[in-house]
Design a protein that fits this description.
Helix content: 40-55%
Radius of gyration: 23 Å
Distance between the termini: 38 Å
Number of helices: 11
Order of helices and strands: EHHHEHEEHEEHHEHEHEEHEH
Largest sheet: 6 strands, mixed
């Protein structure tokens, strides 16, 4: 059991975003932040991920395009016998890749995502990654939608195309405030399976701090869809700093307690818990057949996404 097992958040070093009404600027400030995210993430998707995204995430298969006259070397299995009989000479069917995808972002908005000790919070990094994926999808003429979840389905944005739709998604990623602070990944994945009827590519984005076993639901969802897991975490969950007596608060339950971080035994126990937890999580993804990547909030998520795309090509 770890002091961070329920996402305990050090009060001294947290960098969680205050509510929007406390930030000042109202809608103008929100629009400014949306624009900043757009400039950065659209540039990444255009300049870095254009080829990798297209290669890593395929369409639904081959779709019929047209018929043409048979030429020597064509596969006889492609002959359209109805057209051939009508014109008394052989014609073959021509197929092309059905490229268009539906992309769903399954975004964890529980309280633990507001934790951050170095550069940014987990929620801030998750927002940038989601926006980058959204622009990559729309650049490839894919539809994109979002499901925000905690221990309930907080909001569902149906998949659509267009820059206006992307900007709406980014705005929601920035300003959405959930009703609950707890986490239930299983419920979110089950909802995806129910609400999205046709096969889609789903990016499940979370810190995966959830005591419930979500592997069975994830396995079922991955049989119907192409699910990819993106874990965002902070280094201080993996490496507890030696800063003396520290008061911490559980971001999801509100529980307060004191932790003696100067104790080597405590720090080692935390490190062991983290390693064991990551091994269990890796096993869950492997058994569910889900590709995954972990990104630390003080590291470059671009490299992580490129590695993820590369392993799927």
């Amino acid at each position: 059991m770890s002091i961070f097992s329920s996402s305990l958040r050090p009060q001294q070093v947290t960098t969680s975003l205050p509510p929007l009404e406390e930030q000042g600027g109202g809608s103008a400030e929100i629009l400014k932040r949306v624009r900043q995210i757009e400039i950065k993430t659209r540039g990444l998707s255009n300049n870095i991920f254009a080829g990798e995204y297209h290669s890593a995430f395929k369409g639904r298969g081959m779709a019929f395009s047209e018929v043409r006259e048979y030429v020597y070397g064509d596969d006889v299995r492609d002959i359209d016998w109805n057209v051939t009989a009508r014109f008394n000479r052989p014609f073959v069917k021509v197929f092309e890749e059905e490229r268009e995808l539906t992309v769903m972002l399954l975004v964890d908005v529980s309280g633990s995502l507001d934790f951050g000790t170095v550069v940014q919070t987990k929620r801030q990094m998750q927002t940038e990654i989601a926006a980058t994926l959204a622009f990559s999808a729309i650049q490839n003429n894919d539809k994109i939608g979002v499901i925000f979840f905690s221990d309930r389905i907080e909001k569902f944005i149906p998949p659509k195309k267009g820059r206006k739709h992307i900007l709406y998604i980014i705005r929601e990623l920035l300003e959405f405030r959930p009703e609950s602070h707890r986490t239930d990944i299983c419920q979110a994945v089950e909802y995806l399976t129910q609400v999205i009827k046709r096969r889609c590519t789903c990016f499940l984005m979370s810190d995966f701090i959830d005591e419930r076993d979500f592997r069975p639901a994830l396995t079922i969802a991955n049989h119907k869809h192409d699910v990819v897991a993106i874990q965002v975490f902070d280094r201080r969950v993996a490496e507890l700093p030696d800063v003396g007596l520290l008061r911490v608060r559980d971001a999801e339950t509100g529980l307060l307690q004191w932790v003696d971080t100067s104790s080597r035994i405590v720090r080692q126990a935390q490190a062991r818990w983290w390693q064991q937890r990551q091994q269990v999580l890796a096993d869950v993804f492997t058994r569910a057949g889900v590709d995954s990547v972990s990104v630390r909030t003080d590291q470059d998520y671009v490299l992580a996404l490129k590695a993820l795309f590369a392993q799927r090509i």
